[in-house]
Every structure is written in structure tokens, then in C-alpha cells.
Design brief:
With 238 residues, the protein is mainly α. The chain is built from twelve helices and no strands. α1 runs parallel beside α5. The mean pLDDT is 88.
């Protein structure tokens, strides 16, 4: 019984860590520290990679995306430590804990304790977290995102389409997540999770959907941003 108390304590601690990792407001900290700008007061007022790109440029957006991705990945991956606990019933149970950790990490990103509970939409964090569970599906979703973005230049549209493709890919590869752990049954919980993520992404982008329908959503020409950065560096160097 005492051992189970320790197990529960460890699990709760890991969830707290997952939330704190998700709460790292990379967009806010980088903007304030290196540019003297709170991105939540400019552009779309969203503390995410897209708004950082729009307000501060690629030099700030790249590390913001990397940090947001990594914090989701680490928040989920640390639950692999539970496999060393003899009280954990199965690997499938650990996978389910990882799925819950995705929600906790994204909750931290959307409502960060380190930034007055005003964060971003969590797309990069979701991608990192899902990579920590099923990298093949995450890679496919990112590929869908990239194709949609390159064709239409709308980050919001790319995120929504990639999110909706998530349960499709999970359905196709159902069971592979458990097969990687030597288990022989499909992950119903992961499939349900994928549908929840898809719905949540559409919901968090509902204002963007309205602007897409009205034709007022901002496009992002990534090449233009890179070109502008190169031009600024040339001007700075004389």
C-alpha cells in the first residue's frame, strides 16, 4: 500500500511537471527579453509562433516554435519513467497516461502560470506531444500542414486541416502505437484523443474560420519573411 502511495505521488508530480513545461511562455519571454515587445499586445495578440513571425520575424519565430515543440515532447516523454515502477499494471496504461499528459501540457500552454494564464493556441505543443507518443502520425500531420500552408499560405487553415487529418491517420495506423510496445490490441483511447484534438483545434481557431470565410484572414508568405530578414542583415552590415 505504501508503494502505491509513492506511485500515485510520482504520477501527480509528472502531471505537475507537464503543466509547468507547457506553461513556459516562449513567445512572451523571447519577445520581451530580446525585442522589448509583448506579442500578446500586437498582431493577433496570440502568444504563438505565427504571431511571433508576423510581429518579430523568423529570427524570433524559429526558437519559439522549437521550444513549444520540445516542451510538449518532453512533457509526454517523461512518463516513460513509469515503466520502472513495478506497480504500473501495463505499458498500455503508460500510453494512456501520456495521452492525458498531452492535455495537461497544452492546458499549460493555453493558460500558462508564468504569463498570467494568457498563452497561445497550442498547435506546436500538440505536435511535440503527439510526437512523443506516435511520431509516424505526427510526421504525417506535419506533412499535411506543410502542403496546405505552401499552397494557400494560411497557417490557421493548415493547422485546422492537419488537426482534422489526425484522427484519420490514427485510424489508419490504429494498433501500431501498441505494437511498438509489444502489445496486441488497438488504442481506442488514442483514437478518441485524436478526435478530441481535432475538435479542439477547430474550436480554438473558430475566429480564424470566420475570417477565412470572410476572406479577411492574413496570409503569410514565408519566403518573404526570410527575404526581409536577409535584407535587414545586409543593411545592418552596411
Amino acid at each position: 500500500e505504501n508503494n502505491m502511495v509513492i506511485t500515485y505521488y510520482c504520477i501527480v508530480t509528472l502531471f505537475i511537471i507537464a503543466y509547468l513545461l507547457g506553461s513556459i511562455p516562449s513567445a512572451v519571454w523571447i519577445g520581451k527579453r530580446y525585442y522589448g515587445v509583448d506579442v500578446r499586445e500586437h498582431g493577433s495578440k496570440n502568444a504563438g509562433t505565427t504571431n511571433v513571425l508576423r510581429v518579430l520575424g523568423t529570427r524570433a519565430a524559429i526558437p519559439v516554435f522549437a521550444i513549444d515543440f520540445l516542451k510538449g515532447f518532453i512533457a509526454v516523454s517523461i512518463f516513460s519513467l513509469l515503466r520502472y515502477d513495478v506497480n504500473i499494471p501495463s505499458q498500455a496504461w503508460i500510453v494512456n497516461m501520456k495521452i492525458l499528459a498531452v492535455f495537461v501540457a497544452v492546458l499549460g500552454h493555453i493558460f500558462p502560470i508564468f504569463a498570467n494564464f494568457k498563452g497561445g493556441k497550442g498547435v506546436a505543443t500538440v505536435l511535440g506531444a503527439v510526437t512523443g507518443i506516435q511520431p509516424n502520425v505526427a510526421l504525417l500531420c506535419f506533412a499535411v500542414w506543410a502542403v496546405v500552408f505552401m499552397i494557400w499560405h494560411y497557417v490557421s487553415l493548415a493547422s485546422i486541416v492537419a488537426g482534422c487529418a489526425f484522427p484519420v491517420f490514427v485510424s489508419i495506423f490504429s494498433g501500431s502505437i501498441y505494437a511498438r510496445h509489444g502489445l496486441d490490441h488497438t488504442s481506442i483511447s488514442f483514437l478518441v484523443f485524436s478526435f478530441v484534438v481535432a475538435i479542439a483545434l477547430v474550436w480554438t481557431h473558430r475566429k480564424n474560420v470566420g475570417r477565412l470565410l470572410d476572406g479577411t484572414e492574413n496570409k503569410i508568405d514565408l519566403w518573404k519573411y526570410f527575404s526581409d530578414e536577409i535584407e535587414k542583415r545586409r543593411d545592418a552590415n552596411g
